[in-house]
Amino acid sequence: MSQPKLPKESNLKIYKTLSLNLRYYRNRLEMTQEQVASLAGISTKYLSLIESSSFRNPPTLEVIFDLADVLGVEPYRIFKEL
Question: Is residue 20 exposed (0-12), middle (13-18) or buried (19+ Cβ within 10 Å)?
């Protein structure tokens, strides 16, 4: 089985925006990482890594769609700079 691809250097700004936006929308709803992670079906540790943009394994579209659903936003908003 192949290893997941590491983020490309050229995409790091997008991943940083993703991280900041997830934290922003979660805080706007006054939800904890534990609450959001549980509803999205991922671990709290993984959500923490995504929000800190220190992940080695970028989230899949499925995870992003699930997080957007939990946070009540359209998926594209997670990638759009605020």
Answer: middle
Tokens of 81: 């700079």
What Å distances lie between residue 6 and 2, 29, 39, 58, 61, CA to CA? Answer: 12, 31, 26, 7, 15
Digit-by-digit pLDDT tens for the chain (82 residues) are 566 666 677 888 899 999 999 999 999 999 999 999 999 999 999 999 999 988 777 899 999 999 999 999 999 999 999 8
Cα gap 16→79, rounded to integer Å: 9
Query: What's this model's pTM, rounded to 2 decimal places?
Result: 0.86
